[in-house]
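Need tokens for this chain, all 678 residues.
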Amino acid sequence: MSSSTINSTTPVLISGAGPTGLFAAILLTKLNIPVRLIERHLEVSPLSKALVLHARTMEIMAMSGVIERFLVEGKHLREFHIWQGGKQAAIFPVLNNKESHYNFGLFLEQLRTTALLTAELNDLGVQIDRGWELMDTKVVEEGKKSWVETTIRRAIQGTNVRSTESKVLGVVEQDAEEAGKQYETEVVRSEYLIATDGGKSVVRHKLNIAFPGRTLDNNIIIYDGHVESDIPFDCITVVNGDNGKMMVAFPLNDGQTRIIVDNGTLTPEEHMALKPEDLTLEMFTGMVQAIIGPTIKFQPKDCFWLTYYRVNERHAEHFDYKGRVFLAGDASHVHSPAGGQGMNTGLQDSYNLSWKIALVLHGLAPKSILNTFEQERKPVAEGIIKLSATLLDNALAKDFLRRTLKRLMIAVGPYLLPYFPTTTNPLTMLMIRYHDNAINQRHKSQMNVDEEFQVGQRAREAYLEVIKKNTESGLLVGSTDDTVRLQELIVGPGIFHVMVFSSDMLVTAKPVPATIKGVDTTNSEFLAEDIAQKLLAWRTKWSYKSREEIIEETQTTPRPPTHHSQSVAPEAVSTASPSAIPSSTKASQMFMVHVLASEDVTTKEQSAKIERLARNQAGEGKIYLDQDGIAHQKYGVAKHGAGTLVVIRPDGHIGYRVLGIGHSAWEDVDRYFRSLLA
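Here are the structure tokens for all 678 residues:
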């Protein structure tokens, strides 16, 4: 039963206050977009499905200005320790990488990830509207206009959690209603709805969006608690049992250990009959002891969580419904816990989507730009599902050949790993690339650039020197005492960054620009003028509105949440370089320009020519030294020559690149922005 329908309006309604929904709310709020974030639970679940933040996720959180609290609380882990029966067999540094500043996995329970993101959102003045759950939604179309109408409800007494709900982790079927429960309802009108309501997504079910894939017959058990064991569980520990089964242990921050056990397979009927309450600590202890062997001590001291995990490998047929409703996180893709990719993929979904919605609501881009969300994120989800499936299949291999190969890799793998490039490790999520579309455009001069430098690739990391006047020589040269990472310059959210890879142009250029192999050259004076003119033109034509203007245009109904929670989090401790550009908490400008020179000046004449660029503020065309041309190399730009302009999208991927940094190249970048923005 339901009563008291109330109507309200918000630009963006987000259903589900897990990490994916929270991150979307943070990003949109920073982009001056009012949001309403609803969550059916009155309190954050104390149970944590996800445990790790990978390198790429930490990069985007840093660009968004939210990483510092996580670095304070999280534990840096780089290695897997492999045990065969009762003996340690190998150590694999599988979470290590040489490509990112974040060359580790950051272990932090989802409970704390949720708490830290909630604290960030609270700091921005937004509360979670707890106790409300989404019951139905539809896209209303009247002529050329459309919007979303969503019915939400709240239990009049007690909570929205129903006694009929399944407690088996990983199921994707909806739960039955509970007879006699009474609710009050509300109809919310929004421009957009972001569904971050998990694997059982009500939004996905109500819109009849197919969820194809497979349900595995593996019987997986998850335990959290304190244990005593001869095996030290102070790092990620994989134990391959002589009985043909395996387990994985993870250290949690409060001294507990997460243990995931392979307990064979079950028929669909047996799976349906599973009840977590029937699973006892004695049964679990017996499973573990059978894997590690009878001579190894293992004794649980308590039990915080013990449940079954039903593995589904599925993704939604569509992530975008009529350009108004978007599925993100587990609502759009689910898979096994192998590799720890799930929550990370959801956070990256939010990062891809939020700036695009903001551009449309600010009137800065056509609605068609939202088509790229599904175009870009669906292939990523498909790849993640394949990766986790492969990891799980190999880990649980039962046939003789694959078990023999696994034992062989355990024996020789640690000796081979140093010879493999760490940039290709898929677990770090640094290899994700978006293919050509309305945002990722190839210029005719850059059609045949090697794949690793092509549009759609992640903007790679490099270390730069701030150019300052040397007290001895009087020259403007790179300072080894003042360095900054490239990714500390391409901050967000919502900012396009133009990287000017000037090669040695500013050192060797003649007073009057000419051409090199048909490409316009330039000099410091002309480059500084092009930068100033284009920044002025772009910022005049395209800039973010204030939050108040968006509220007025969308007729937002201010409605303070009736149930909300404050989250206690540690103070952020900055680890950024002194010359890093801080992430904005209130969007204003959309464009920044950064100049990278591959060679230092050697004469007073050269020094004088770059003085204007050196005086520029960060983001306004300031020049940095790319010592030894490492950044140029990582972006496929020659250290000597005409240089290249590279446009970095607001989510840290390459959107466009054009050979040369002369006036004609700037005109090409201008045409790119005009083709993309409104």
